[in-house]
Every structure is written in structure tokens, then in C-alpha cells.
Amino acid sequence: MKKAEKAAAIQEILERLYPEVPIPLDHSDPYTLLVAVLLSAQCTDKRVNEVTPHLWAVTDRPEVMKDLPVEDIREIIRPCGLSPAKSKAIKELSRIITEEHGGVVPSTFEELEALPGVGHKTASVVMSQAFGVPAFPVDTHIHRLAFRWALSTGKNVARTEADLKRLFPRESWNRLHLQMIFFGREYCPARGHRMRDCPICSVYGRRSLLKRE
Q1: Is the pLDDT of residue 154 over 90?
Q2: Rounded (5°) CA angle 191-13-157
Q3: Residue 156, CB-side half-sphere exposure with 13 Å CA sphere
Q4: FRET label pair with 20: which of 6, 99, 100, 182, CA 20 to 30 Å apart?
Q5: Residue 157 and residue 188: Cα distance in Å, rounded?
Q6: Domain 30-129 adopts which CATH fold?
Q7: pLDDT single digits (tens) 160-188
Q8: Which architecture, in CATH terms, is 3-21+136-210?
Q9: Which residues are catalytic?
Q10: What would you report as the CA-atom Rg of the chain, rounded to the nearest whole angstrom?
Q11: Quick check: 30 and 112 in contact, CB under 8 A?
């Protein structure tokens, strides 16, 4: 089976399993999404969703956040981990958004990636989920699945992103990356995974990995 045919078959399975794909991070606008995605680095979405209401109770507006003491922000977001770096980034990006973008989260990759604490993956999530721009954010789940399904070499997330964008229709990227995240969590976890019991790996998994089981 050609790789493109495999990709189409996998997409059909994901569509059947996840016809509805809610955005995992709770948010009310591009700014709260941006902050939530930043907090999700090396932290679960569940934990972020538990923490952000406490932050929004203080403020969910960049023009106010920029004036909060960084120590106050750090104390609230501490359960998310990496709080010293994340709190500084939240305060500074809030200042930049307020002073340089009129209080509005910028809607280009270049401007987003110029913000403190915002890398390509974070920018991709915001572009796709807040602004509807086709993007394919690659997190650890997607990176793992793309390798297990032999859709990418798995050398790095940049290569995985490029490979997936080449295989799947552009109009499906925003939906598909969420479907893959949900599938990875439910059926294809990093640990304790048996490929032969997986709805996709059992049929389309990388042969070298299947042989090990």
C-alpha cells in the first residue's frame, strides 16, 4: 500500500472514531488560548484547565496581565510546572500584545513566534484553533503516532510536520491534528501500548515495530 493510500485509510478511521473534536484547552478568546497553550508545555491539558480559571479570576486581559507582579503569576501557575519561565513569558508577551499590537493577539506565524515563550508548535495551535488558518501542530502524541504508522521517519517534529502536511489535504489539518491527539491518548499511549490491539497500529503500523511484539 502506498503511503498516500495508508494516510487516507487512517484518516477514515479517525473520522469515524472522532466525528466531533472539541479543543482540549478551555479558553474564551485568542489571548486566553495563547496563554493556555504556553502553559501546556510539559503539562497535561487537564492540569492547565484546572489552573487557568484561577488566573482568569485575576485577569484574562493582556493590558492588565502585563502589570501584575511576575511573582503573583508564578504562584498561580505553579502547578503547571516551569512556572518561573512561563510567568515571565506571560507577563512580557502581554506587554508586547498591549503596546505593539493594540491589545489584540497577532494572527501571523511570524508575529506569534516573536512573542516570548511562543514556539512554532504554540503558534500553530493558535493559528489553527483561534484563527482557522490551516496548520498542523505536532505534539508528542502526533510525533509518536506518525512514526508508529510509518508516515514519517520520526527524526524530529519539524520533519514530522512536513511529512504529515504533504500526506493529508490542507483543509483537513486543523481537524485531523486534534483527532490524532485524542486517538493517541485513548488508543496509542507512549507506555504500555500493544500495537496489535490498536485499531490503527494493528493494520497500518510500522512493520519493524510490529515484529517486536
Answers
A1: no
A2: 50
A3: 3
A4: 6
A5: 18
A6: Endonuclease III; domain 1 (1.10.340)
A7: 999 999 999 999 999 999 999 999 999 99
A8: Orthogonal Bundle (1.10)
A9: 121, 139
A10: 18
A11: no
